[in-house]
């Protein structure tokens, strides 16, 4: 399981931007895992459903309209959680998924440096 | 082959940021292909070798020290070129690879919006 180190209110990219220096082998493994989590169209649309939902949070019941079966939705959400891109919380019947803007900012920072 | 539409001096992301609205199926296919190109550690290190080289350009002879065979290096460079992340130019004996900063900025824009 690869997770981005997210500190409250701060953006802490795991790795130096790709343009600043040649990546180490260890950093390349971490970064590749993050990009891989977004490399499937259905997974990316599920992620987008959560990211664009009010407050950056969505009930799993809100984001099932991507044309695949419920077990497939669950599989993709698990992959996104394992990559540290989504967090989840059970409330009563439903599981809610949340994307932290700092994670997106950290990933963008890997491409173009900190802002 | 999926290419980012890069206009000279301008950043033109192919797709809306994931946080702005739920992605369409077509956009998700394009974006996923870009992320996929960076989802392999060796490919990411080759990309970083080029991105961090002087002037954002490197001879293929400069970037072979990533611990894989030369045919594997060629295979990964081809994938990066097909995804629109690198361009290449033959000069005499060697092929030179170049990364356009606007492509990195466009990818980052997909994650956090335009800057």
From TrEMBL, chains A, B:
Coiled coil segments of this chain: none
InterPro entries, per the entry: ArsR-like_HTH, HTH_ArsR_DNA-bd_dom, HTH_MetalResp_TranReg, WH-like_DNA-bd_sf, WH_DNA-bd_sf
PROSITE patterns, alphabetized: HTH_ARSR_2 (PS50987)
Stretches assigned to the HTH arsR-type domain: 23-115
Name of the protein in question: Metalloregulator ArsR/SmtB family transcription factor
UniProt-listed Gene3D superfamilies: Winged helix-like DNA-binding domain superfamily/Winged helix DNA-binding domain (1.10.10.10)
Database matches in Pfam families: HTH_5
Keyword tags: DNA-binding, Transcription, Transcription regulation
Transmembrane segment boundaries: none
Species whose genome carries this gene: Kitasatospora nipponensis
